[in-house]
Amino acid sequence: MEPVSTAAPESARRRATRARLVQAAQQEFGKNGIDATSVEQLCEAAGFTRGAFYSNFATKDDLCVAIAEHFAEQTIRSCHESLASLPDRPTPVDIVAKILGAASLTEDQHRTQLELQLRAWRDPELGARMAAVRADTLPLAAEVIARATAQAGVEMLVDVNDLIRIFEALFFAPTLAREGTSLRLIAYVANHLTRDTHP
Q: What are the sequence ranges of the domains in the chain?
């Protein structure tokens, strides 16, 4: 009889451990900042020892990249699920509400995303790694926008990548996040940068 492989359960445990560390980091980085959050704090928040961190990540920058990848994957998946529940002939406002609902963040998670952007801006090596994550994500985000505009029966008046950048700038702006005005402004932009194609 051949020995039973234990590779799959170990892989599943590793993924679960990484996911818990990523989740804890999104909260702790948002509360305290990346540099002010120690590995010990992260592990305590996730319910692990330091060994669990270093068996998954060599540095906090590795964890930052994992957070960016997780956010991108989760957001794209949630957007597709949300668009599937839209009514027939949705308006741009309907679509924006669905997409932003799928990409919704807690205050700590929102601050963590801003922390990641600043850290990547200051550190060229991390910046290059984060840019690679973004390069992988942009085509998937463009697919979401293309699907959404097709459902709404509208066409974009600007390049899809430019539209994504505009939406991101409004979505992540700290002042707009505090005011709660991102949805209104993104919907306004969406209305003015698309054109109805229905006869």
A: 59-196
Q: What is the spatial distance between Cα 92 and Cα 98, in angstroms, rounded to a whole number?
A: 10
Amino acid (one-letter) located at 158: V
Element (H, E) at 156: strand 154-156
Would the pTM of this model clear 0.90, i.e. be above it?
A: no
- Give the helix, strand, coil percentages of the chain, each rounded to 5: 75, 5, 20
Long-range own/partner contacts, residues 103-108 (CB < 8 A, 24 or more apart):
103/75, 103/78, 103/79, 103/171, 106/27, 106/30, 107/30, 107/177, 108/26, 108/27, 108/28, 108/29, 108/30, 108/31
Q: Which has the closest alpha carbon to 112: 8, 185, 32?
A: 32
| Per-residue exposure over 180-192, b if at least 16 CB sit within 10 Å of its own CB, e if not | eebbebbbebbee
Q: What are 39-83's pLDDT values in tens digits? A: 999 999 999 999 999 999 999 999 999 999 999 999 999 888 888
**Topology at the third CATH level for domain 59-196:** Tetracycline Repressor; domain 2 (1.10.357)
Contact assessment for residue 172 and residue 110, using Cβ atoms and an 8 Å cutoff: yes
DSSP H helices, 33-159, are 39-46, 50-54, 60-83, 92-102, 107-122, 124-152
